[in-house]
């Protein structure tokens, strides 16, 4: 018989040619741990705790610097200070009230700027359509004036008046303040209502009187973001544009940019804020603000000659502080 092959080592044997043998000097517990990791590769070492990191801030919260420099936070702090502490000195109270009025003024100014941007986008299409309509009306009137030369004096006067109104209409659509609410010149009648205007039940409208119907129509126009003037009536800004037409185009451009209206409105807001805030504070703590000027300035700042310093006045001595 031929030679038989030596038996292959079993799977449970400690010898495997594809693995490195342990070193003789390695401790037995380390060899057991490595053997267990090889038999169960998913078994890992115990998890380590993550390092102590600060909590992640949400998008709403702000840092301490942002909270301290936020105008709204300062306004809230000043209001609490002025209403809670009634024993503040008069000078400190007036200083805090002035700071509060200035912060409220800046806040109102920022709000007006934000509303100006919104109104500019909201009424852009309405202004464009009304400008085109006013230009068509002006062209018709000019053709009537140039077509027939022989007219009565009354007719020519009325035609000239209508041409002037059409020119003011065009300038109103062009130079009305962009940041303010635009009041429409032309009343839409019949089926030419806006598509975004709320639907009104005609059966219910028939049961209302004239005042109630006008009130509901004004509310519908307000909800559709367009303000309509009454039939034949001109908005107040129309007369302002007519007045500035004689002063030149520079004034009209200043009116359009809000330089003539925003400053006046801000001054009124500042005066209203100061008076309202002072009334609220006095109603809260119930005492009057102390005067900043001394009592001897009550008589128009005239000093009594008896109160003037003199060489013989011993009471005005410095008490020997500078005497050596």
From TrEMBL:
Residues 1-93, 277-324 are annotated as: Disordered. Residues 16-37 have a biased composition (Basic and acidic residues). Keywords: Coiled coil, Nucleus, rRNA processing. GO terms for cellular component: nucleolus; preribosome, small subunit precursor. Residues 297-317 have a biased composition (Acidic residues). One of its GO terms (biological process) is maturation of SSU-rRNA from tricistronic rRNA transcript (SSU-rRNA, 5.8S rRNA, LSU-rRNA). It is found in: Nucleus, Nucleolus. Its main location: nucleus. It comes from the Eukaryota. Involved in rRNA processing. Belongs to the EFG1 family. This is rRNA-processing protein EFG1. It comes from Fonsecaea pedrosoi CBS 271.37.
């Amino acid at each position: 018989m031929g030679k038989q092959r030596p038996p292959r080592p079993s799977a449970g044997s400690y010898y495997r040619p594809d693995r490195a043998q342990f070193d003789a000097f390695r401790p037995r517990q380390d060899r057991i741990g490595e053997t267990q990791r090889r038999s169960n590769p998913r078994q890992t070492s115990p998890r380590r705790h993550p390092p102590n990191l600060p909590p992640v801030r949400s998008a709403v919260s702000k840092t301490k610097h942002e909270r301290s420099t936020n105008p709204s936070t300062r306004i809230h702090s000043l209001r609490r200070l002025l209403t809670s502490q009634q024993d503040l000195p008069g000078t400190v109270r007036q200083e805090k009230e002035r700071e509060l009025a200035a912060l409220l003024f800046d806040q109102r100014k920022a709000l007006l700027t934000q509303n100006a941007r919104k109104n500019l986008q909201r009424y852009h299409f309405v202004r464009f359509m009304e400008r085109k309509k006013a230009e068509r009306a002006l062209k018709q009137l000019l053709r009537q004036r140039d077509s027939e030369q022989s007219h009565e004096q009354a007719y020519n006067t009325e035609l000239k008046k209508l041409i002037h109104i059409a020119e003011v209409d065009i300038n109103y659509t062009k130079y009305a303040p962009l940041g303010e609410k635009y009041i429409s010149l032309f009343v839409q009648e019949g089926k030419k209502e806006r598509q975004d205007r709320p639907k009104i039940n005609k059966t219910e409208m028939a049961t209302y009187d004239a005042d109630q119907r006008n009130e509901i129509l004004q509310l519908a126009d307000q909800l559709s973001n367009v303000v309509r003037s009454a039939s034949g009536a001109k908005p107040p800004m129309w007369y302002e544009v007519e007045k500035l037409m004689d002063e030149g185009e520079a004034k009209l451009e200043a009116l359009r940019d809000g330089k003539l209206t925003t400053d006046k409105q801000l001054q009124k807001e500042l005066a209203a804020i100061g008076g309202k805030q002072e009334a609220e504070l006095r109603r809260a703590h119930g005492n009057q603000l102390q005067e900043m000027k001394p009592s001897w300035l009550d008589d128009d700042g005239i000093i009594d000659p008896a109160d003037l310093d003199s060489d013989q006045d011993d009471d005005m001595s410095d008490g020997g502080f500078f005497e050596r």
